[in-house]
Amino acid sequence: MSGQRKCPDCGSSEIVEDAHYAQNQLVCADCGFILTEGLLTTTFQDEEHLQEVTYSRSTGQNEQLSRCKQRGIKRVQDLCKVLYLPAVFEETALAYFQRAIEHPSFHLVSLEKKEILVGCCVFVTCRQHNWPLTMGTICSLLYADKELFASVYLCVLKELELDVPALSLTDLVKTHLNSFKLFQSSANIPAKFAEDKGKMVARTIQIVELASETWLVTGRHPIPIVTAAAYLAWQSLQPVGRLTCTFPRFCKLAGTDLPPPAHLRLKELNDILLRMASQLAWLRVLNVDKKTVVKHIGDLLQHRHFLLKSSFSSGDSEDQSATAAGNGPESSPRAAGCSARAEGCHPGGKQKCSSVQRPLLPPCLINPRKRLRTAALSPSDQAITGDEAISDSEIEQYLRSQEEMQEFSKAQAWH
Amino acid sequence: MDADSDVALDILITNVVCVFRTRCHLNLRKIALEGANVIYKRDVGKVLMKLRKPRITATIWSSGKVICTGATSEEEAKFGARRLARTLQKLGFQVIFTDFKVVNVLAVCNMPFEIRLPEFTKNNRPHASYEPELHPAVCYRIKPLRATLQIFSTGSITVTGPNVKAVASAVEQIYPFVFESRKQIL
Questions:
Q1: Are the CB atoms for A128 and A182 separated by under 8 Å?
Q2: How many Å apart are CA A249 and CA A228, to the nearest integer?
């Protein structure tokens, strides 16, 4: 707008812009003379610029899109609102949904699958922006079947040719712990159970990293591991009052579910921590067991690199003592003291030390389940070419004799 | 262990699936009545016939299409398929053994080392897909061979491909990638 306008009627220069029923007008403040009027019928372009009514809320969209698409778009928007996702995520998810719904493999499917498609688009968007969202969360929000979700998700990835980065455990820990209700004392939570969020998150992340170094994370659901690590972290920050609190009670206090595999993860984590504790000189005398190892988690985590190297064999015991000695001068003075002790232990009590050591393998290899493996082809079988002659007697065994056929049809008749 | 050195890897073929046509209409009720070791699934319209000597299960449709599964080599698959066709001939149908094709081969291979799956996925992004919430293994697809490999953290690899040669070359191709993501000493 260049220069001040003057009202042609009364000459005042007080012109205001007024929107009368969504129609912009320039009006003189003194006499009410209308200087200019917007068009009564605006185009989509104008409306978008004015931002009076968004396209998605006007009737324009409803007329151009089919009901199924409208419903899907609304569901995507609702889901993004429920999860408090930024606006960028909503746009990306909508774009993916509109691409997917056009695809023949998603256009003519059941309503249940279309609902799941909505969840998949939001899930893919979150993963691509490294927003830690698990499939379990989406399935529970949509009341969807997990297997169906899995198949639709893999189909979406294939059809839309999307690349999804891996779930970052650190972010998942932060998001998951946000939902815990332990960070301030309340009616249910005594003061000694409340914990500082920053410390708990930091220690949980360290325990989860320890788990991923020792093969407890690969191939498994992430949430049970995070829950078990959070429990250990919480206990270790103030062991005095909290050792008596059981895992199920902890989850109830925190207001979160206890997933069934979490007990096994807790057991595995305790096992790893016990092995590490057996390598620390001042803990060996204290006879830690799985209940008391929690008190020393802080120390164990501080020296975890050295302890992992010394408590798990890498195949060669000679190598082991060499690396232990090599690490001595590099790590802190305490650890140097340990390594000297460990070396001293080796020639003296080699039997005992080697029995404690265990190869660093995934748990399923340490306790392998007996599996029936089909035997390899015997030499006579290997000589088969496929074109040998077929004898009649060989075929007779697969045919019923007359008597058998009569018996069978009699039996069928009773059906 | 150098990746270039020759490592003898045992590839164990666990299943070979093949199809053939009999070029004649088959009466499923007659097969169910006169054949031994036969299961008639009336609701889906097929007959399951099991052979003993090459352990094979065949699915027979009335159109004359037969699918055989359970063989442990391509030759054994053909061996079993021909016996099956002969059995149908003996039952009285005018069977002609045509269009024999091996459709799918499933094999298992064990690597002598463990594999760090998140690292492997990061290095092989477009081909490898790893969703720990869905399946504990990485799914790696080799498009030119039309082969799919499932790589577990224990070093066990399950390969499916259109024939035995494709399966063998898939294992050869994957070995260097898997080798570089193997578990290192901490």
A1: no
A2: 13
Tokens of A268: 């595995």
Distance of CA B108 to the CA centre of its chain: 10
Residues of chain B with Cβ-Cβ distance to A308 below 8 Å are: 186
Structure tokens at A369: 């389940």
Per-position DSSP letters for A165-184, written without gaps between them: PPPPHHHHHHHHHHT---SS
- Band of the pLDDT at A55, cuts 50, 70, 90? low
Tokens 């690349």 found at: A163
Q: pTM for the whole thing?
A: 0.73
Inter-chain contact B133–A135, Cβ cutoff 8 Å? yes
Alpha-carbon span A122 to A73, nearest angstrom: 11
Strands B128-129 and B138-142: antiparallel
Question: DSSP letters of A120-143?
Answer: HHHHHHHHHTT----HHHHHHHHT
What is the distance, to the nearest Å, from the Cα of residue B125 to the centroid of all Cα atoms in its chain? Answer: 26
Task: Please state, in angstroms and rounded to a whole number, the distance separating the CA atoms of residues A178 and A174.
Answer: 6
- The enclosing H or E element of A350 equals helix A350-356
Residue type for position A323: T
Query: What is the ipTM, given to two decimal places?
Result: 0.75
Q: Is residue A105 helix, strand or coil?
A: helix
Within B7-163, residue ranges assigned H as helices are 28-34, 74-90, 117-123
Between chain A and chain B, the number of residue pairs with CB atoms below 8 A apart is: 123
Please check whether residue A388 is in contact with residue B79, taking contact to mean a CB–CB distance below 8 angstroms.
yes
